[in-house]
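Quick one:
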Amino acid sequence: MQLKMMAIFGAVLGSMLIWAGSADAEERFTDLQHSKWAEDGIEYMAERGTVAGYGNGIFKPQGLVTRAQAVTFMVRELYPQELEKPVEGTTTYSDVPTTHPFYREIALASKNGLASGFPGGSFRPDAPLSRAETAAFLTRAYSLLEGKQPANWSDTKQHWAEAPILILSSNGLVGGYSDGTYRPNQTVTRAEYAVFMSRVIRFEREAAIRTQDWDKLISYMTVSEQVGQMLMADIRQWNGKVTTTVHEGLKRSIHDQDLGGLILFDKNIVDISQLTTFTHDMQREAGDIPLFLSIDQEGGVVKRIPGGTNLPGQMALGATGDTALAEAAGQLTGEELKALGIQINFAPVLDINSNPDNPIIGIRSFGSDADLVTRLGLATIKGLQQSGVIAAVKHFPGHGDTTVDSHLGMPVLTHNRARLDAVELKPFRDAIENGVEMIMTAHIAFPAIDNEHVTSLKDGKSVPIPATLSKKVLTGLLRGELGYEGLIISDAFTMNAIAEHFGENKAVERAVSAGVDIILMPKDPAVAHQTLVNAVKSGKIPDKTIHASVKRILELKAKYGLFERSQTLAQKLTELNGIIGSKQHRAVEQEIAERAVTVLASREGVLPDQIQQGDRVVILAAEQEQAKQLEKQLKQAASNLSLKTEISLIGQGKTNEALQAIGQADYVILASYQFRNVASEFGWSDYQTLIDTMNRRNQRYSLLSLGNPYEMIYLQNVRSGLAVYGKQEPNTTAGIKVLVGQRKAEGKLPVRTD
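Output:
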């Protein structure tokens, strides 16, 4: 009867003194106004799911912590997953029956040597904890060594807890009183205990970071923190506005999902000062583990930085064939990104654009030759790495020979393994051998490697597994056969090839199980985070899988100096103008653009038709803005030629107007821009009509290719043509200089058009 009453009393007391719910989620406490000194420690431990209140925002910081509460907090911190399993064996404590509300926690604490009982076989679970016992509990839980701070307390000599008190005190983790005493037998409040625990954990984490002991740091990271490192979210709108500063919404996202990284887009960027301030403030918000901040700064059509060096793009580099220029391009890009506070560039593209109908890669590739792509890719990687920025190459195992954009659907590459080895895999294999540290996966199916199919959530049809979700591709091929040891990051999970067919939960689980270290742009970061937490806790994803990924992430963050945060914001802002778009960087930009210009067609086989003194020049383009840009550049380059210029547009329903415009022209610049669509389905007939007309009249003209340089496959009898591989100003300026005779066209077409 007495034992039964004790159990009932313990249960009631427990529900009163511990919590009104679980500690699975962080609580916000409203009664800490008189315990401000402890607020940070309490909130830190609550965020970790270690301490909890009584519900309704009540923590009762001045309440005494009991021995049962103390071991419960430690077990939650150290052995959260064991709490979800059946308890092995039984305790021998006379006052802790199996019906005791904290029986499980006390049993686990006893099993793991965190706490022991008293002579006579009792544990005294409801007794208040003393300062001496606190020191003993914490030094049993954490393998601390004696520190260097003085800790000579007058009342701890010969005390049973003298050694643990000395260890905590000498490391500055607990203090004494002004009279030189420690007061070992004094009881401890809930606030004090939370603060002591938070100090120890932070101390140990700091030591692990300082010594780069990543296994130790991971042991102090919660499951939430571990899987959070594996998420790289995009920065979304808040309260209906684009995000360009660290506001409360972004703070909550960083903390709620313990995010390890973020990707920036042009919508998040106003100018270089704002961006530098933004990245600085995000890192300040991140806590003791810095964020990976990433961007797509390929150059050419994919660029994000306003005011930065506007590189002509990868296919322009391909046309130069110059590895020194590719390395310089990588280095200047890295220097600018690093100055802006960005550590990862999703570049270079190692896809071999062997298919003219590829709707998404095209001029983003160096070309259609595996050797060319490999040479220039390795040089670009080297340049980025030398500048202190991580090169994240893409899209493994190769997106170059597809006719479907994986943003919109599921591409399938049907080549056999021999072809993949000879072409698609070559640049990735060589990049791995030369130390590339991050590889982005492609949402593309490769049946020659993995022919597994699943039922699509979109339409119930059977769909192949894309590389991003394939263990055979990522673990078998990439890690196993190719020996890759760096980080694997997925392409964006918002893309339809993933989002439509597999669902966020299954796709995230499957990607990590397949070998992905970082999920890029989960559709719902909170859902992705909780999915991974649940998968780890349930055993669907083994701890060792998560630990291996997190260790790779931490190692790379350390290698690139992310844990070293010595520069002030003022210093960063002062240095910007000497780096971003500097004279030296612009010179490289100009050299690439000018050396890339390639003759597509010529009457004499050497030069395109030249613009001459006093010519009436008609500029035809699909967009008014593009035509005006060309007109402006022509006037600047040929100010001594007394030219007259006229603009007209080309496109569906505008051919007759264009024909009328060229009727009185001495020279025609016919600009074409085919990109982000299938080349064979482009509106070439309008261009052919104009070319045929100009040929009949024997007019001087030049077809100016601003996009994918495949015009000669689809157009007949072109007598004069140039490719500049981009519609950006450096590219078009270089093309105009050739047309007015100021430069020679030195580039070599880097793709096959036969």
